[in-house]
């Protein structure tokens, strides 16, 4: 007999147990259901893109997994390690690069604005740690226009994501919003021109604190002490309503760009608050991505789990893709779904009501009567009741213990010799006559329920 090789896990490549997968599937289902309620269509793109396309964001070149055939000849390409970026494929590291290619490739067959959601695995070769994986699900929600995209879409996408997050088994989630126009306008109004440098420095506030950020502003952006303090005060503004505007003006913010930014952010706050109360707030410390995003930017945080960082982020970008005929601006938000599920599981935020989908185990009296048990199972399934037939015709007590170990709540006993069928709730011990074409389990037992953890 051949020996079985000992296997071990690969760091950064999670494999959930069946009960854990039920929690992950619930998160996926909620995302899809809410997105479709708001008219978003699901798409799936190929897992690979040309390496040169993936490397256009040069800072992530070391994170891309290269795809090569097992029997590819050595030195088949050119460049470092025989890899030719123009001829080599890589696994996608996010869903934005594939979306840009997808929109350009299928533009003649798509209706714009395109309302798209996408839940798909991505791969990044970064160092695994808590909340960081090498293979994980990402869930994206985007509206992409052709040449133009109305400003109200920024609030609309945030509303949909807020509704998704509100339906998940999570503590309070707060979506923090800022807008590029407001930040850039403020820096201009106090006399700072290196907007990108200021944003880069402010982005480090959570990691290094205000004093070290102040030093960076003085050393790297040419800010005076007064300007540096104004930037820190600006980044400290957080409000649940439009009162942020007056505080910006008090710090010296003014001019057309500042007022436009105030109007944009106020509109987002009011629309999201009206749809999903208590979720949105203005947070002018948000700087990450403002050198890429062209409008509102969002980051979302989980109360009591701030160490996890932002669980959902995105914003408006006016340069997703372009060709000689059209440009494609968009607004999008993205959840690192596996990362979020990992925290739900590790913190015990949610558990399934049972570890398997099965509601009923149909017992088998003996192998000769297995067809009768199979018929009962077919009838129950035709009515949407998940069931399975016992694997062996063991003693009934052993079949009940099998159901108990699996977490199956009911055992069905087909009647023999003219006797009626009976069904047993093995949790309470209650047993009564039942007919497979009419019996209904309690509503909470019909399907697996995802419940708050203890």
Automatic annotation (TrEMBL):
Primary gene name: hisS
One Pfam family it belongs to: tRNA-synt_His
Catalytic activity of the protein: tRNA(His) + L-histidine + ATP = L-histidyl-tRNA(His) + AMP + diphosphate + H(+)
Any GO MF annotation of the entry: histidine-tRNA ligase activity
GO CC annotation terms, alphabetical: cytoplasm
Top-level taxon: Bacteria
Name listed for the protein in its UniProt record: Histidine--tRNA ligase
Family recorded in the similarity comment: Belongs to the class-II aminoacyl-tRNA synthetase family.
Region of interest called Disordered, as start-end residue ranges on this chain: 430-454
Organism: Candidatus Brachybacterium merdavium
């Amino acid at each position: 007999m051949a020996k079985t090789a000992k296997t071990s896990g690969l760091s950064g490549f999670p494999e959930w147990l069946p009960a854990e997968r039920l929690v992950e599937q619930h998160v996926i289902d909620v995302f899809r259901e809410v997105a479709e309620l708001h008219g978003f269509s699901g798409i799936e793109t190929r897992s690979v893109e040309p390496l040169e396309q993936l490397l256009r964001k040069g800072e992530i070149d070391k994170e891309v997994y290269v795809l090569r055939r097992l029997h590819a000849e050595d030195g088949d390409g050119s460049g470092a390690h025989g890899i030719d970026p123009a001829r080599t494929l890589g696994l996608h590291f996010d869903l934005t690069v594939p979306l840009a290619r997808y929109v350009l490739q299928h533009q003649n067959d798509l209706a714009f604005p395109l309302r798209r959601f996408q839940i798909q695995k991505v791969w990044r070769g970064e160092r695994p740690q808590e909340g960081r994986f090498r293979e994980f699900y990402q869930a994206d929600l985007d509206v992409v226009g052709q040449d133009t995209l109305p400003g109200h879409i920024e609030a609309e996408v945030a509303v949909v994501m807020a509704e998704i997050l509100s339906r998940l088994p999570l503590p309070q989630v707060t979506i923090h919003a800022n807008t590029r126009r407001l930040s850039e306008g403020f820096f201009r109004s106090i006399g700072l021109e290196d907007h990108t440098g200021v944003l880069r420095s402010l982005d480090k506030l959570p990691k290094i604190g205000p004093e070290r950020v102040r030093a960076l502003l003085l050393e790297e952006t040419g800010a005076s002490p007064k300007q540096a303090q104004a930037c820190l005060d600006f980044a400290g503004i957080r409000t649940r309503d439009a009162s942020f505007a007056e505080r910006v003006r008090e710090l010296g913010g003014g001019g057309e760009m500042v007022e436009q930014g105030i109007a944009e952010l106020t509109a987002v706050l009011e629309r999201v608050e009206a749809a999903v109360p208590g979720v949105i707030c203005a947070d002018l410390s948000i700087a990450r991505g403002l050198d890429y995003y062209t409008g509102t930017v969002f980051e979302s945080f989980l109360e009591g789990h701030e160490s996890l960082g932002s669980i959902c982020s995105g914003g408006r970008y006016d340069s997703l893709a372009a060709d000689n005929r059209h440009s494609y601006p968009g607004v999008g938000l993205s959840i690192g779904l596996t990362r979020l599920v990992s925290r739900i599981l590790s913190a015990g935020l949610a558990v399934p009501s049972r570890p398997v989908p099965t509601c009923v185990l149909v017992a088998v009296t003996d192998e000769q009567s297995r067809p009768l048990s199979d018929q009962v199972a077919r009838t129950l399934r035709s009515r949407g009741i998940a069931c399975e037939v016992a694997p062996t015709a063991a003693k009934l007590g052993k079949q009940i213990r099998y159901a108990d170990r699996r977490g199956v709540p009911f055992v069905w006993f087909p009647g023999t010799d003219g006797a009626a069928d009976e069904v047993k709730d093995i949790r309470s011990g209650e047993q009564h006559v039942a007919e497979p074409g009419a019996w209904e389990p309690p509503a909470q037992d019909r399907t697996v329920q995802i419940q708050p953890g203890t």
